[in-house]
Amino acid sequence: MYFADVNSNSTQISRCTWILSAGTKTSIFRSLKKFIGELKEIGLNNPLFSVNPAYAKKGDLMERELEIVISKVKLLDQLKTNKGRFVKSYEALLKAYEKKVAEYQTKYGAYAKKVVLKQLEKKDGQEPIAPPKPEDRTKDYDFYIEMLTEDENGDITLSETLFKRLWKDRWDWTRSYFNMLNLYAGGSGSLAEMASDYSMGD
After folding, report:
1. Domain range for 16
2. For 191, phi and psi rounded to 5 degrees?
3. Left (φ > 0), alpha (ψ -120 to 50) or beta: where does 169 sit?
């Protein structure tokens, strides 16, 4: 296991600890390159790495954990921006959902009528399926915004998981939300553009 410390004079970031174990040297260099790129996004342009061999074990290396200290003000601003983007896309998604519900009710009414009158034919196909309702995730943003607002410290320590959620806007529900946007977008329009913001490719 290796510990890689990142130090900077930046007022936004004071220290990062990267815990590494089990993986190839090539994968480590790729991971470090990605890590440095993410640090540059938040204002750390010249990170200094040090690897402590005292923690080394036999075998290759891979990323295990990341902790980062970041300005609370900057993190709050980013989180509120992420929330605003979600609210805008959710409102558009909800309108598309309501339109699909209206279409479903019309189709289901016609289908049910044929069932009652015993006029159902093969060409009518199967019973219409109700469209899935998008879930409002605003409360996830509000929880962390309230928590950070009440925190009296100027800097916040984030784990890798929290950094992905609060800064990168990558939650455990992001992929399903991305799929939902694409489902109602039909491959084009403003919803499709919004869906691209939630792509998991990065």
Report:
1. 2-61
2. -65, -35
3. left
Residue 128 lies inside a defined structural domain of this protein: yes
**Are 60 and 22 within 8 A, CB to CB?**
yes
User: Model confidence over 76-123: pLDDT tens digits?
Assistant: 999 999 999 999 999 999 999 999 999 999 988 888 888 877 777 777
Rounded Cα gap, residues 54 and 2, in angstroms: 8
- Burial call 118-143: b when 16+ CB within 10 Å, e when fewer: eeeeeeeeeebeebeebeebeebbee
Give the count of domains, the chain.
2
Question: Is residue 67 situated within a structural domain?
Answer: no
| Helix extents (H) in the chain | 25-41, 72-116, 138-150, 160-162, 174-185, 190-197
